[in-house]
Amino acid sequence: MKKLIRGRALYTEEDRIWIAQGMSFFAIDYSGKRVTKKYKVGTKLEYLMGINRLSRQLLRQGLHHLVPLKNGDVLVTSKKISYIVDEKGNIKHTFTGYKGNKPAHQGICVTPEGTIFFGEYTLNMKRENDSVLYRSIDNGKSFQPILTLKKNEVRHIHFVKYDPYENCVWLGTGDEDFENLLLRSFDNGNTWEKVGGGSQDWRAIGICFDKDSITWGTDAGHVPDQNHFIRMDRKTHALEIIHDAEGPCHGCASFKDGRVFISIGVEGGENEVDRFARLKQVVSNDVKTLVKIKKDIFPYILQYGVIRLPIGTENTDKVVYTTMGLSGNGEQVYVE
After folding, report:
1. Burial class, 159, CB count within 10 angstroms (exposed 0-12 / middle 13-18 / buried 19+)
2. Over the stretch 51-110, which tens digit does the pLDDT of each residue have?
3. End-to-end CA distance of the chain
4. Cα–Cα distances in Å, from 121 out to 56, 103, 134, 328?
5. Of 97, 124, 214, 266, which is least packed with CB atoms within 10 Å of its CB?
6. Strands 260-264, 286-294: pairing kind
């Protein structure tokens, strides 16, 4: 792995990586050369607060998601507002009014047909908020609520992700045992079926695909439960524990060549073995540690120690990740 650029890698394509630096974003090739203009969204104050890494992380400023749309525009999210930006840098539409600062890391996806799914995410410690899944079928011009998960059913939405093998969309929730659900839709989000749930083994922040199974790491943070690497058989929906994890799993990605990677974060929970974030590769029933970096000196409220994998990894076989809150790695993008 080599250092590529300062910033956050938000989305990968076959020939380029979309990078955010504060409230600016642009694409680079895999050598680090910029291949698009630099775009900017937000107010001047947001831009200034997003320049410094520490203030950006403390205030949750900067850009958190980027997904290319079917018509050539891109959707980017910042704190409490999302933008649709065209290739000239014009802001065509904005989306506000959803609860929380932003979706979870894998809380946005775009299907091959162009449908956008957008999942609300709030901390919801007291279970006061319902969680809503939104959908856009007009390239982000408008978003409609299509699924409401009641506050007594789930705490929040963890991810929504398109599955190219079954041509369906998966949705995951958390956090208590009964709140951990895995749902699936075959009709573009009109109806949903429950595939599994009811324990910490179903508490995933994202899932990885191959033709026979679905793989994830569990995200049991600040609880005594052991975290695991889990594989679910597509036909039977039976779960297999592949391996124990050293802490909560904060990222996962499956690649064009079939490889699966899962990252383990540091958030100070009682089930963590140490203060190191790790990037793991899952190969059959073996798990290999590829990267191991210690949490930095700053408090958890500023930033958990994470190795974040971008959206869009199914488009490429090149492994890209961003380090955040780790020693010597404030916000740094690496490439294989």
Report:
1. buried
2. 888 888 888 899 999 999 999 999 999 999 999 999 999 999 999 999 999 999 999 999
3. 4
4. 19, 5, 12, 29
5. 97
6. unpaired
